Amino acid sequence: MQEYCKSVMTARKHTLRGQVDRADGEREFFATLREHPTKPAVKRVETVLTLMVEADTLAREQREQKRLFERSGKDWHRHKPLMESLHASTRTWKLLNEALLPYSWVPLAEGGIGRFGIIERPVTTSPAQWAYWERMSVGTLLRLARKPGELSRLRRCSECLQWFHAIKGHQQFCGVSCRRRHTAQDSEFKDKRAAYMRERRIDEKEEEAQSKRQAARVLSE
Ligand SMILES: [Zn+2]
After folding, report:
1. The dihedral of CA 122, 128, 131, 134: what is its sign?
2. 169 C-alpha to center of ligand 1: Å?
3. Cα 212 to averaged position of ligand 1 atoms, centre (Å)
4. What's the rounded Cα separation, in Å, for the pair 105 and 124?
5. Whose CA is closest to 159, among 145, 179, 141?
């Protein structure tokens, strides 16, 4: 019990700090995922995150498809790809529910002068740093999942594959360095392809000229 109280106290301190700078908290969360990928607690949180984002992505794709069907006046109820996508959703929800099963929450009264509220607090019996981090992180993810559109902001960087929180709707990279690296590779790839195409055109011309010469020889024989 004493340990539980201690963790609630730290939770309060964290909440306050979180309110002061939410962006800092998010950076810290993603930095932890990046820096300690092999910690079991981090792996479990990443599973929850991956499944949540997957379920959200599937739902968004389905909404878009449904909207297109409705616009064209077609019936989507028997559309096979859409039904398959729904099955994929069901599988993801099942896995997510299993992943969320170990976490429990208790309502907690808190307040200050002129302020009172009931909040949800994670129950943790372990005073260990990672157990605490795990509960808080899952709590953050659950809060994000309840806010419409928030999960679509949690993405994997197209370059380094690390998780990040997108500020802009179309953002693909976790930061400037990954975007630059990707652009550089992209232009290097384009240069290489252009060179390859040039070579091929020269080869083709050479082949064409050769076959013409051959044909001319055959004709003249
Ligand atoms: Zn990146």
Report:
1. positive
2. 16
3. 53
4. 9
5. 179
Q: What is the 3 state secondary structure string of 144-169?
A: HHHCCCCHHHEEECCCCCCEEECCCC
pTM (predicted TM-score):
0.71
Tens digits of per-residue pLDDT, 114-154? 999 998 888 877 778 899 899 989 999 998 999 999 999 99
| pLDDT interval class at 167 (50, 70, 90) | confident
- Report pLDDT digits (tens) over 10-42: 444 444 444 446 677 778 899 999 999 999 999
Distance 23 CA to ligand 1 centre (A): 17
More confident residue, 107 or 126: 107
Tell me the domain boundaries of the chain.
2-165
Q: Extract the tokens encoding 71.
A: 């616009």
| Residues 197/199/201/204 CA torsion (nearest 10 deg) | -130
Q: How many H helices and E strands in the chain?
A: 6, 4
Distance 182 CA to ligand 1 centre (A): 9
Length of the chain: 221
